Amino acid sequence: MVLTSAVYSEIEDHIRRHLAEQRVPGASVAIIQDDQPLLLSGFGFADIENQIPVTENTTFPIASLTKQFTATLVTVLALEGKLHLDDAITKWLPEGGHKWSMISVRHLIAHLSGISDAPMNDLDDQTDYTEDEFVSTIASAPLLWQSGTKWDYCNSGYVLLGALIHRITSQTWYDAMSEKSSSPLE
Fold first, then answer.
1. Helix-strand-coil percent breakdown of the chain, rounded to 5?
2. Which domains does the chain have, with CATH numbers?
3. Which of 1, 136, 142, 178 has its CA 20 to 30 A from that of 93?
């Protein structure tokens, strides 16, 4: 397939219209066929205030998109028998002591843990903390409510899942994800 100027123009119009409708300031777009790029282009702005355009080389922080991959990786570990979703997290995260004894892996995945994000919000984002420092910081706060009784979006729960993955696999999140996602599920 070759992208003619008419097809490219139609794609570009569609992207610009969609960005405007969704109020998205910018996006990078790639169309790949048979490992060959047919289109690599940026649209809109990476930085609106400074009018810096998006290019094909613009990188974007992926932020909470990692949560779906983390949940999948934990599920794969469960399918492999390395954990059970209803296990108490204190099996791998003893820093939480008795207050975490009723929190299951499933509670962390589903944002039902009752763990607070407040301690993480107070950390200096310019400091490179260790995993143990993150876990201890999260463990220092009281629970907001009994696990399983209330839903609340919780970044700290996913930090703990990352630590749990590391402690189970002895691999970083990235290495565990690379290994598990590059091989077929059985």
1. 45, 15, 40
2. 5-59 (no CATH), 64-181 (3.40.710.10)
3. 178
